[in-house]
Amino acid sequence: MVKSGVFRAQAAIESSSRTTARRGQAAMEYLVTYGWALLVLFVVLAYLLTSGAFSSNSFSTQECIFQPDLPCSPFILYKSGGSTILKFELTDGLGFPIEVYSVNYTVAGLGSSTRQTYQSSGYYDQPINPGQKFSFEHAFSGSTQPSPRDFRNIDVALAYMNCRANPCTGPYVVSGRISTAVEEG
């Protein structure tokens, strides 16, 4: 009887060690399976973060907005040499000829790290007729230049003369905003 009790105890110990081994094997399989899944997840997440998929530029809308009677299209902001160049076109939809007097661009991170206003003048010596397109170009040069794909908001103040009657009257000022990403030149 003592023998059978010893055998039973020994059998219980062996059964317990087999159960423990199975549990250990199951735990290792669980860790390895989910470990690979987590590793793949981290690699994909690291790739997305380094590719710029979560940058604010990916979610920003590019637009050029002036008043409805001055539609703005096309527009581009691109790097060329040591400067960044803005080009855009407006169409005179005001119903009367205008003469552009000056254009002010206010922006941060183009030529200077602080918010700065740049002035351009002398665009046209003669009036622009209704329906006619007119182009603008400004080079922002300086020590601070954006990288390609950086997003910039440029506030534009356009001063013009109303040339419905002779002589032209004004100047009048209209404001607009150009929001776009910097492109390679």
What name is given to the CATH topology of the largest domain? Immunoglobulin-like
Q: How many domain units?
A: 2
Number of DSSP strands? Answer: 8
Main sheet: strand order: 1-8-7-4-5
Q: What is the chain-wise order of helices and strands?
A: HEEEEEEEE
Instruction: State the fourth-level CATH superfamily of the largest domain.
Output: ApaG domain
Main β sheet profile = 5 strands, antiparallel
Fraction of residues in β-strands: 35-45%
Integer average pLDDT = 86
Rg calc:
34 Å
Short description:
The chain has 185 residues and is an alpha+beta fold. It is 27% helix and 39% strand.
Description:
By secondary structure, the chain is α+β, with helices and mostly antiparallel strands. It has 2 domains: 2-54; 59-181, Immunoglobulin-like. Helices cover 27% and strands 39% of the residues. The chain has 1 helix and 8 strands. The strands form 2 sheets. Strands 1-8-7-4-5 form a 5-stranded antiparallel β-sheet, with no helix packed on it. A 3-stranded antiparallel β-sheet has the order 2-3-6, with no helix packed on it. A hairpin with a 6-residue loop joins strand 4 (98-108) and strand 5. The longest helix has 50 residues, at 2-51. It is rod-shaped. The model has no long low-confidence stretch (mean pLDDT 86).
